[in-house]
Amino acid sequence: MQPRPLRKVGSEQEEGFGGQPRRMADLGTVSNLRRSNSSLSKSHRLQGPFGSSEKHENLSSWIPENIKKKECVYFVESSKLSDAGKVVCECGYTREQHLEEATKPHVFRGTEWDPKKHVQEMPTDAFGDIIFTGLGQKVGKYVRVSQDTPSSVIYHLMTQHWGLDVPNLLISVTGGAKNFNMKPRLKSIFRRGLVKVAQTTGAWIITGGSHTGVMKQVGEAVRDFSLSSSYKEGEVITIGVATWGTIHRREGLVHPTGGFPAEYTLDEEGQGSLTCLDSNHSHFILVDDGTHGQYGVEIPLRTKLEKFISEQTKERGGVAIKIPIVCVVLEGGPGTLHTIYNAITHGTPCVVVEGSGRVADVIAQVASLPISEITISLIQQKLSVFFQEMFETFTEGSVVEWTKKIQDIVRRRQLLTIFREGKDGQQDVDVAILQALLKASRSQDHFGHENWDHQLKLAVAWNRVDIARSEIFTDEWQWKPSDLHPMMTAALISNKPEFVKLFLENGVRLKEFVTWDTLLYLYENLEPSCLFHSKLQKVLAEEPERPACVQMHHVAQVLRELLGDFTQPLYPRPRHSDRPRLSLPVPHLKLNVQGVSLRSLYKRSSGHMTFTMDPVRDLLIWAIVQNRRELAGIIWAQSQDCTAAALACSRILKELSKEEEDTDTSEEMLALADEYELRAIGVFTECYRKDEERAQKLLTRVSEAWGKTTCLQLALEAKDMKFVSHGGIQAFLTKVWWGQLCVDNGLWRVALCMLAFPLLFTGLISFREKRLQAVRGPARARAFFNAPVVIFHLNILSYFAFLCLFAYVLMVDFQPTPSWCECAIYLWLFSLVCEETRQLFYDPDECGLMKKAALYFSDFWNKLDVGAILLFIAGLTCRLIPATLYAGRVVLSLDFIMFCLRLMHIFTVSKTLGPKIIIVKRMMKDVFFFLFLLAVWVVSFGVAKQAILIHNERRVDWIFRGVVYHSYLTIFGQIPAYIDGVNFNPDQCSPNGTDPYKPKCPESDMARHEPAFPEWLTVLLLCLYLLFANILLLNLLIAMFNYTFQQVQEHTDQIWKFQRHDLIEEYHGRPPAPPPFILLSHLQLFIRRVVLKIPARRHRQLKNRLEKNEEAALLSWEIYLKENYLQSQQSQQRQRPEQKIDDISDKVDTMVDLLDRDRLKRSGSVEQRLASLEEQVAQTARALHWIVKTLRDSGFGSEAGVPILASQKATEEQDLEPGSRKKAEEPGDGYHVDARHLLYPSRRVTRFPVPNEKVPWETEFLIYNPPFYSAERKDAAATDPMGDVPELLSEISFNAVDGQTDRRSFHGPYAVRGGLPLNPMGRTGLRGRGSLSCFGPNHALHPVVTRWRRNEDGAICRKSIKKMLEVLVVKVPHSELWALPGGSPEPGETLPRKLKQILREESWPSFESLLKHSTEVYKGYMDDPRNTDNAWIETVAVSIHFQDQNDVELKRLNSNLHTQDQGVSIRWQVVDKRIPVYANHKTLLQKVAALFGAHY
After folding, report:
1. What gap in Å lies between CA 1315 and CA 1289, rounded to an integer?
2. Could you tell me how far CA 1340 lies from the centroid of its own chain?
3. Cα distance between residue 1234 and residue 60, in whole Å
4. CA Rg, the chain, in Å?
5. Phi and psi (nearest 5°) for 940?
6. 1172-1221, pLDDT tens digit by residue?
7. CA distances (Å), 1038 to each of 930, 1290, 1366, in order?
8. How far is the C-alpha of 1120 from the C-alpha of 1113, rounded, in Å?
9. Per DSSP, what are the bridge partners of residue 120?
10. Are the beta carbons of 791 and 1070 closer than 8 angstroms?
11. What are the C-alpha distances in Å from 1369 to residues 1174, 1345, 1381, 1393, 1434?
12. How far is Cα 1427 from Cα 1337, in angstroms, rounded to an integer?
């Protein structure tokens, strides 16, 4: 017995005395719960044992306000003592554990203890984090709640305050509360399967939470999972709902302000009759009713909570599903049977694990039998086997109740799944659980394909593509591609690539799927943490009109930033005349949001919506910007322009990685960019091997889908060096470099022809085109001098001539008045300025002046050119002014250095010098950063030396020399002579610092001509300085150079090949004449561009727009080779040693599994055959005993006493698989079923259990004692009396027309016993008339109004050759099923009340005339849940069929259909076996369909 902390009850207790009113007041806060917690977000969940103080404070204030506990407020001494022998209250707690006021109340004195009055709610005092001592630091959550706490409050606590994600599945595990033994293999299979299904589907597991029985099994399963390597993939949420009053050592959990954390000790030895919490559960809900030691308190709250959660809707990716629930049963007793019965009754599928014992095994043994064979004797036999210890406690009534419940459970086989180890093809519990849910969903009645849609929604929500393949995409249902579009969207948004692949395999075509509105919806549902999402938000914020939602031109704007300005916008900005798009603010499949659902989106977009230019491209971009690797890979495999797509993806990812703040995500993006670069290389390699010329066409083809750019441009902008350095691309660049010349011409031939022009016509130079090879005229010369290689070498010669002339002028001919040589330099430079201006304004891609200028200045060599030109202009300006002539010469001399540096760019074309220049450029960066380190030592040593040696030097130039210049030269060995006093010479310095050509003398004794500064200190500083600067830093620089060299040397070939393109492109578009003759070309360009307004165009050799037919053929060829590439990649993947090892491992595991299952199957079969053999032997022995006895008595014996041997057929049937047994029984097995449901509809009345064999009145049933129930009705005048008083019943005339009430039965006269009529179909378990209006038969009329289903053309629709019917059905409020518009007519009336509700009053006579000409399809008893032993429903079902769609009566009927009640719905629905109507109405529809030979 645990002492509870004493607490004084103040005003809160007084307020709580009202009990129920107080609770009702608490319920009012539920609607405001979400608002009260708006500051909490899932991104700030508690991640460890000590979360943020703000979170704890919020919980400490919210939980006591909304969640209560129960306290006994009146101590009444019980006749029973506690386990420790102490006096306790009726609630089970000792006097010390009660509140002070509870032991001396004045209000309740003298009254008996009543839990409803004497147990009051108060703010809970036990909640927070829980840690199990000695079991690591795994932190759980717990809360003590009142048994009356609303489920909505608990659910809000779990999802908002505890931060649990809304589950995709709820697994309720029930069974034995005490420890039980399972076979090791079965235990292993159960644990592995349960955790697997919870982890893969994102499920919550709900158990009793204690460290015993089935709860312990679940906890150990979670523990084994947490110790495995897959734990990092996600935590398993395990919620224990336990009774607070039965928890051992619960006093450690009591913390009025919350335990953060509370320590709990697991003490199984000292728990006695109580239980300990299981340490492997993650969350605990401890249900309190104010008592101690009473088990089962939590069951009602757990049931309500599970029901509430299962009614919640989870939405993701535009798909909303109600959270499915499944019950998993291990072992168990009578309470477990009740739980299973309730679950099955409420439509919850159950998975029973055979071999776990007791109830589970009883149900598993009889689950495959026909209902007629599940008898009281059979159940009694099974109970004697599986409940040996407690079998004697079973009374006859309890056995009957067990039989009835088991019959009802087995009758709904679609909700019952038996997991048999090694049988039924089941390999694991997870598959059995998910198959049970799908089987239950498949059994539900839905309109059309809604049933299959629901199953697919579940599979997608669970992310179990294996279940979808095996259970949903079967031959049983043919999926239309359009039906899969909504789920395709959900799979994309939820990032489930396996489902996307599955949908593509099953007919979804991306070109039909991706519409403009679909694309908008996808971009509206980008991941909020995605960088592209934030960039889109910035673009929206910059819009002047501030649009409410994303438009595609906003996406195009961000994509152009990523791809580059050389591309055109992928999506145009809409004009005012364009069609406005659909508003799609997060729709559901099930619930319409703002009038638009995702399914309606596809219905509306299928016809008149315009498709985007390249839907596959659009989807690929959407996946890439979110860095979804697998999804993008699947979509890329469907792409048409695959090489350009891969290069564009590489570009986008590299640009995004530059802005991504998360290092891991940035690295993933770069890795994915490299992967797509390799894909582009792989496809291009396949193309190049097949056809070099067509492959090179792919490089320069203008891709309309990617912004009118080319593959080569995309690769260059993405800096895909591996791709550009590919042999095929380099061969293409070489071809461009040589122009129309053959690439095998030697440079010496080109040089000879440049120097000796007439050699062109001698055949020394060969051309690629035969036409040029044959002619000898100007065309040959034009082709030669337009070749980039010739233009380049002419420019080299020109540039060398310019430098030589420039050097000559600077050193020899620099006169006050410019000479002709100097004027030639000016002209030369002017031609260079014109060329740079042409490059700046050359814009074939129409990027705009600003973008082109930015692109121009992004090149280092262009910056160097501009700098050299500006410096030359500055020097020229100074040179032309006589006063600054010398300064001008100095500036021009410096400028000469810059022009010489420009030679390095020219040398990059060399395969030998080019890589070395790249290495030098990288090393220059190392030097730049090294100078920062060196400056620290130089300045520190220089300042210290200057301050020690020289006093008050005021000359700035000499300060700079002493501090920086001398210190820098010291590194290279030029040590100052006066630093140690040995070489001190006063004549070499100025004592007062007045001589401008001599440094100031150091501190010295002028009398003795000796230095006065501390020589030891200066020498020591010099040694340290040389040690660090000369040895350490210089060697560091050498090491940096070496590292850079090694790093760059590996990639210099790639870098050189990549940068080679820039030089080739520059000279490819350059005028053929070298400076200064290039001015003539510039004049021609000026006339063409400015005067004639002819726009600039890129040469077709680098950017080629193909004809549509040619382009289509080229892309088809590329797709074919892409498939070859993908197949080769898969083949290589399979050939990898790691993959082979994995394959072999999988095969071995499969073989072991098959062998184990075969062994179990064989052993099970042998056991069954042995049991059958034992039974046969026993019966044979009894038969022999009877024969002997008969012969001994000299008689032939009685025929009735002869034992019946078990038939061989029955023995063989035991060997059949449970799934292979034919379901011979019809619904009800000849007896009414719905009329025997234990719970009477809409009333808290429980029927007496009546098994099948006890239904007939003729069968003896001595213990049959059903309750009596007759409900009050509003129409009391037309209702029989409520009681069973003989005087009142004697006035009723049964089996006759009693006034306006016809009490005759369609089945003939019925028996009357004790003044009450007996149901002709047998017992129902309830006496009285129930909720019916009269005793005996209650007559009803059910008109079945049908017409043929027709298509848009008016033709009758057919399915499997048969015509299809449509029936008029009605749905009333608070009902999930539809019904025929029939019922019981008022006394003296013809039309049923329900039919009148949907017809206008003026149309009643015409419908009555239709009834007169109708066809009767059924007359008799209806199996209805309202039936009792003394009152039942009998109906007449008539068929009213409209053969012609233009029938006047049909039109009149349609025009008169209306509903007075807004909650009532009317519709024409296709007649099908899946139609969601009541079961007895479905039987009538089947008869009507058979009458017309229609489909059913």
Report:
1. 6
2. 52
3. 50
4. 47
5. -65, -45
6. 787 788 788 878 887 877 777 766 554 444 444 444 333 333 333 333 33
7. 10, 120, 90
8. 11
9. 71
10. yes
11. 57, 9, 6, 15, 20
12. 10
Residue 1276 has pLDDT above 90, yes or no: no
DSSP symbols for 63-96:
HHHH-EEEEE-S--EEEEEPTTS-EEETTS-BGG
The span from the CA of 843 to the CA of 853, in Å, is 10
Q: What is the mean pLDDT of the chain?
A: 80
Q: How far is CA 24 from CA 19, 70, 115, 121, 308, in A?
A: 9, 15, 18, 12, 19
**8 Å CB contact between 335 and 405:** no
The Cα–Cα gap between 1471 and 1488 comes to: 10
Distance CA 584, CA 517 (A): 8
Strands 1312-1313 and 1316-1317, how do they pair?
A: antiparallel
The label of the residue with tokens 């001698």 reads 762
CA distance 217 to 224: 11
Torsion sign across C-alpha atoms 816, 817, 819, 823: positive
Residue at 786: amino acid letter:
N
Pairing of strands 283-288, 139-146: parallel
The rounded Cα 1458 to chain-centroid distance in angstroms is: 44
Distant-in-sequence, close-in-space partners of 666: CB < 8 Å, separation ≥ 6: 657, 660
Residue 397: half-sphere exposure toward Cβ, Cα within 13 Å = 8
* Helices 497-505/629-636 angle, 10° precision: 20
What sections of 966-1014 are H helices per DSSP?
Answer: 966-971
Residue 1342: is its pLDDT beyond 80?
yes
* Residues 438 and 458 sit within 8 Å (Cβ to Cβ): yes
HSE at residue 97, side-chain half, CA atoms within 13 A, is: 23
Which single residue is written with the structure tokens 């289903």? 1349
Are residues 1302 and 1419 in contact, defined by beta-carbon separation less than 8 angstroms? Answer: no
How confident is the model at residue 1204, as a pLDDT? 45
Q: What is the pLDDT of residues 221-263, one digit of tens each?
A: 888 877 765 544 567 899 999 999 999 888 889 988 887 788 8
| CA 1363/CA 1361 separation, integer angstroms | 7
Residue 590 pLDDT greater than 50, yes or no: no
Closest residue by Cα to residue 997 from 958, 1040, 956, 1031: 958
Q: What is the rounded (10 degree) CA torsion for 475, 477, 478, 481? A: -130
- DSSP-derived pairing of the beta strands 1327-1330 and 1268-1270: parallel
Highest mean pLDDT among 259-268, 601-610, 666-675, 1402-1411: 666-675
Tokens of 148: 């009356």
Angstrom distances, CA of residue 473 to CA of 410, 510, 1055: 28, 19, 51
Q: What's the CA gap between 679 and 447, in Å, rounded?
A: 46
Q: How far is Cα 121 from Cα 67, in angstroms, rounded to an integer? A: 9
Q: Are 908 and 1057 in contact (CB under 8 A)?
A: no
Higher-pLDDT residue of 548, 790: 790
**Rounded CA separation 1177/1183 (Å):** 10
Higher pLDDT, 1157 or 1465: 1465
Question: Which residues have a Cβ under 8 Å from the Cβ of 1145 and sit 6 or more positions away?
Answer: none
> How far is residue 283's CA from residue 261's CA, in Å, rounded to a whole number?
13
Report CA-CA distances (Å) from 153 to 28, 31, 1074.
11, 9, 85
Report residue 546 as tokens: 């501030």
